[in-house]
Every structure is written in C-alpha cells, then in structure tokens.
Amino acid sequence: MGISSADLLKGLLNPRVKVGHEFIVKGQTVEQVYYAVAALAKATYDRMFKWLVSRINSSLYTALPRQYFIGVLDIAGFEIFEPVIRRLKEGEGKLLHSRQFHSYTRYRILNPSAIPEDSFVDSRKAVEKLLFSLDIDRTQYKFGHTKVFFKAGLLGHLEDMRDVRLSQILTIVQAMARGKLMRMQRDKMMLQRDAVTVIQFNLRAFFSVRTWPWMMMFYKLKPLLKSAQVEKQLAALNDEFNKLKEAYDRSELKRREAEEQHMVLVEEKKDLALQLQAEQENLSDAEERCNQLIQTKISMESKLKETQERLEDEEEVTLTMTSKKRQLEEEVMSLKRDVDDLEMTLAKVEKERHGAENKVR
User: Fold this and answer.
1) Do residues 279 and 360 make contact, with C-beta atoms less than 8 angstroms apart?
2) For residue 39, what are the domain limits?
3) Same domain flag for 41 and 77
4) How far apart are CA 234 and CA 3, in angstroms?
5) pLDDT, tens digit, for every residue of 89-141?
6) Which residues have C-beta within 8 Å of that of residue 353, sequence separation ≥ 6?
7) Whether pTM exceeds 0.85
8) How far apart are CA 107 and CA 343, in angstroms?
9) For a surface tag, which of 17, 121, 282, 339 has the fewest beta carbons within 10 Å of its beta carbon?
C-alpha cells in the first residue's frame, strides 16, 4: 500500500483527532481497533473493485449497441455495477432502468390478487409473480440479485399502466361517492315528502275540528293545565332552593368556626413568639452579667497576684516593715473575701443562666 507498518499501527492504535483548532492523540480500545481495521479493509476492497470494474468497462467499451451488464458481489451485500449504468449511445442498447425488489408495492396495484396478503412472500418471488401476471414481454426485463432491470420504455409503460389503473380506481371511488350522496339526497327528499304529508293531514284535521264545542273547551282548558304544571315546577324549585340554602348555612357556620379557630391559633402563636423573645432577652442579659463578673474576677485575681508579689518583695527587703506587712495581709484577706464573694455571685449567676437556658429549650 506504500505506507510504513509503524505508521499504520500508530494510526490504528493512537489516531490523531482534531479538536477545535488543535490535534490530539486519542487512545483506542481493542474493540475500536477491530472496527477501524474492518472499516479500512472494507474501504480498500471497495476501491479495488471499483477500479476493477472501471478497467473492465474501459476494455469492453465499444460504439456498437450492447445490452450486457456486470454484477459484482460486495461484502456488504449485492451491488450492481453496469458498465455503461448512466449514459449510453442511442440505439438498441439504451439505458437499463432498475428497481429494488422491496419497491414492488408501487406496482402491486396493477394486480393485487397476484400477491397474497395473508402470508409472507419473499420480495423477489413477489416481484416475479407480479410481473408474470401482467401482459408484458418477459424479454424486456431481467432479474438480478437485489434489483430487476427494465429495458428502455418498459418502466414508462408500467407507469402508464399504473396511471390507468389509478384512474379506474378513482373513477369507481367517485362513482360510489356520488351514489352515496345521491342516495342520501333521495332519503332526505323522501323524508321531506313524508313530513309534508303529515303536516297536510294535521292541517286538514285541525280545520275540520276547530269549530267543535269540545275542541273550543280544550283550547280554553289547555293554558290552565300549563299553569298547574308551572306551579308544581315552582314548588319543586322552592324545595330545592330551601335545601341549597340549608346546605349553604351549614357551610357558612363551619367556615366561621374555622375562622375563629384560626384567629385563636394566631393569637397563641403571637404570645409564644413574645414569650420566646423575652426569654432570649433575659438569657442575653444573664450572659452579659456573667461576662462582667468573669472580667471582674480576672481583674481581682491579677490584683491579688500583684499584691502577693509585692508582699514577698517587702518581706525580703527589711524586717522593719512588719507593721506594713500586717496591713498588706489584712488587705489581702479583704481581697480574698471579695474574691470569694465574687465567686459565689458568679456561681449564682451561672446557675441562673443555666436555668434560663433550660427554660428556653
């Protein structure tokens, strides 16, 4: 093939793919490599046979009339390559038209009974039965593996036959439609005729009995009968109205009760929200007092430490400072008492803070 085996392996295993304006190297799986090899083999096979058919066509070319063709079996199926498949010289060997077997349904209308509908029939056999049942010279067409080939003019003849058959079917359909419309018009006219007869009979009867005393009494009593019926209908409507009104009153009472309950729940919600806010404020106050006491304790402890250090320094300096030392000790004792008091106060505040937190929870 004129290429390096290393380049071929590289192209199959790690092909270059264009992404945007750049090329990247893509890794292939084993299955993808198999597909690539199969596609490459198919393309090579296809090009080789196309070249072979072209050489055969060029070697067999002649200006004399011809009717031959070449059939080539491809790995993907039956493909037909005619040596002269688009343009031929005028004469006996004119262009051969072809049709796939599965397109026979277009001409099935010429003889529908030739192909049974209740069983499966192969496309090739169906086309054979259809063409054999028609009045056509069998030398004007030839069957291939997947196509049937017609000589020039035969395909047009089939189209003409199809057009004639379609025109016949359309004529029959139009005749049946016109017949249906005319029968409907006739039924309508007969119904109108019967209606006219009944109306005429009733009019004659009316004119013959309209002066009878009993008929005149009936004319006077008929409106009264209608008024009695109207009163019954009115009473029924009143009963229905009363029932609907009672149902409406019950629903209105339930709605009011629901609204009152809703208002109570809203008030309870507001009270709980206010109580929660108050508890949160108390908690924040207790936390603030606790923080202040802690700061005071820290300050007092620092003062105590400073006093003790200063006391130790004074004891080392001189023994003459005993009186001053006693004063400082008394000050220290006082500060300790203050610290104890602060610790007790802090413990009490801590206890109050824990109690407030528990209450909030």
Assistant:
1) yes
2) 5-56
3) no
4) 105
5) 333 333 344 445 545 677 788 888 777 777 777 778 888 888 888 888 888 88
6) 283, 286, 287, 290
7) no
8) 112
9) 17
- Which of 131, 152, 173 marks a domain boundary? 152
Question: Where a domain ends, among 35, 56, 77?
Answer: 56
Same domain, 45 and 66: no
Please give the backbone phi and psi of residue 81, each rounded to the nearest 5 degrees, phi first: -115, 110
Q: How far apart (Å, rounded) are the C-alpha atoms in residues 55 and 71?
A: 15
pLDDT tens track for 219-244: 787 777 666 677 778 888 888 888 88
> Which tens digit of pLDDT belongs to each residue from 38-70?
988 898 888 998 888 888 878 776 665 555 444
Supply the CATH number for residue 105's domain: 3.30.70.1590
User: Does any domain span residue 189?
Assistant: no
State the Cα–Cα distance between residues 225 and 229, nearest whole angstrom: 6
Classify each residue of 230-255 as buried b or exposed e, where b means 16 or more C-beta atoms within 10 Å of its C-beta. Answer: eeeeeeeeeeeeeeeeeeeeeeeeee
Residues 6+ positions from 196 with CB-CB distance below 8 Å? none
Q: Quick one: 223 and 338 in the same domain?
A: yes
Same domain, 239 and 304: yes
